[in-house]
Design goal:
232 residues; alpha/beta; TIM Barrel; 8-stranded parallel β-barrel; 9 helices; 30% helix
């Protein structure tokens, strides 16, 4: 069973920040998940939502901001008085890279809102060649994964889906299928395994639920509480 630290140790640090990933790594995490958006200057921001409204109280769209603009918007920090900001992917990679086993980068690009994000990803990761075999890309936007595979045939991809279709995963040459725990079934896991696909389930923060998912065929989970699972 693989345990992905979902947006870092986000129950104790602000999600998707350097502090969250540093704590998760210190807690023993070696598999991580994060989200990326394309900024207007070509850099990749690590953040879940398309806007800063829920995280910084400002309805600013990430696609309209530059990497310098990010420093204008401190994120809401319920854990301490320290100011934290949306980081760049290039800032997070060195934090998670020591002893890294697997990094799932979810590409936020619904309806191709960020044309060219695939090329920006390839450009950024060219500076981290040692990490490439340990990176798995996923996206709810199927076209994004198709384009990524065209410009980078060696990219490992996972089908992130709300409506499971094994033929989509096969068509992508995917390594895995990622699905919400409410949509997971043992039958889906069985189909995945018959087609040499791993089955990863999100977001699981309960030991008993994780154990049942494993019995039903899940190969890994995404969790907000990585310490809970690594303390076993």
């Amino acid at each position: 069973m693989i345990y992905f630290s979902h947006r870092g140790a986000n129950k104790k640090r602000v999600q998707n920040t350097g502090a969250a990933f540093a704590l998760a790594h210190a807690q023993g995490a070696r598999c991580f998940e994060l989200d990326v958006h394309l900024l207007k200057d070509g850099h990749l921001a690590v953040h879940h939502d398309y806007s800063l409204l829920s995280t910084a109280g400002k309805d600013e769209k990430l696609g309209a901001l530059s990497s310098l603009d990010l420093k204008k918007y401190p994120l809401i920090n319920p854990f301490s008085e320290e100011q934290v900001f949306v980081p760049l992917l290039e800032e997070i990679l060195p934090i998670v890279s020591p002893e890294l086993q697997l990094l799932n980068i979810e590409i936020k690009n619904d309806n191709n809102v960020y044309p060219g994000i695939e090329k920006a990803i390839v450009k950024t990761l060219a500076f981290f060649p040692d990490l490439l075999p340990r990176i798995l890309f996923s996206s709810f936007d199927y076209g994004t994964l198709e384009r990524l595979r065209v410009i980078w045939p060696g990219a490992q991809v996972g089908l992130l889906t709300r409506n499971f279709d094994v033929n989509q995963a096969i068509g992508l040459g995917a390594k895995s299928v990622h699905i919400n725990q409410t949509r997971f079934t043992s039958q889906i896991a069985e189909i995945c395994h018959k087609n040499r696909l791993k089955m990863y389930v999100y977001t699981v923060n309960d030991l008993a639920v994780a154990a049942q998912l494993q019995r039903d065929g899940a190969d890994g989970i995404f969790t907000d509480c990585i310490d809970l699972f690594l303390e076993k």
